[in-house]
Amino acid sequence: QVQLAESGGGLVQAGGSLRLSCAPSGRAFVTRPMGWFRQAPGKVREFVAAIGSEGSTTYYAAPVEGRFTISRDNAKRTVYLQMNNLKAEDTADYYCAQNRNTVPTTAAQDYGYWGRGTQVSVSS
């Protein structure tokens, strides 16, 4: 059983930055593609970014491309989401997830393990 834990959320002013981290617990962790998703109040969960197992392949949702950067440190078993130039519309709960496949994808149904989320609030 893989358990994921996000950290780094908080309240920030528009234009500011935050870095989210996602680390697993448990012995069954396998290096697989990882993703970040977010869910704003009253909205469906949406894809934010994904990264391949070795970190060389990344995908971003259009609203965050150029502002967010996903990365990973496999030695630390940690995945990061650097968020710059934050906007009010980035306010959401952010979730990391581990992909069941060997390649990164953008569909939530491809992800088998999910963290409990970390809240990001951006004031305008």
Describe the protein in words.
The chain is mainly beta. The chain contains no helices and 11 strands. It has strands at residues 3-7, 10-13, 18-25, 34-39, 46-51, 58-60, 68-73, 78-83, 92-99, 111-114, 118-123. The strands form 2 sheets. Strands 2, 4, 5, 6, 9, 10 and 11 form a 7-stranded mixed beta sheet that branches. It has a 4-stranded antiparallel beta sheet with strand order 1-3-8-7, with no helix packed on it.
Question: Which properties best describe this structure?
Answer:
single chain; 124 residues; mainly beta; 7-stranded mixed β-sheet; 4-stranded antiparallel β-sheet; 0% helix; 50% strand; globular
In short:
The chain is an all-beta fold and 124 residues long. It has strands at residues 3-7, 10-13, 18-25, 34-39, 46-51, 58-60, 68-73, 78-83, 92-99, 111-114, 118-123.
What's the topology here?
Layout: E1 3-7, E2 10-13, E3 18-25, E4 34-39, E5 46-51, E6 58-60, E7 68-73, E8 78-83, E9 92-99, E10 111-114, E11 118-123
Parallel strand pairs: 2-11
Antiparallel strand pairs: 1-3, 3-8, 4-5, 4-9, 5-6, 7-8, 9-10, 9-11
The arrangement of helices and strands along the chain is EEEEEEEEEEE
Q: What proportion strand?
A: over 45%
Largest sheet: 7 strands, mixed
Radius of gyration: 13 Å
Helices and strands: which structural class? Answer: mainly beta
Number of strands: 11
Give the uncertain stretches in residue-range form: none
What is the overall pLDDT average?
Answer: 94
| Multimeric state | single chain
Q: Could you give the distance between the termini?
A: 40 Å
Count the helices. How many? 0
Helix content percent band: under 10%
What is the general shape? globular
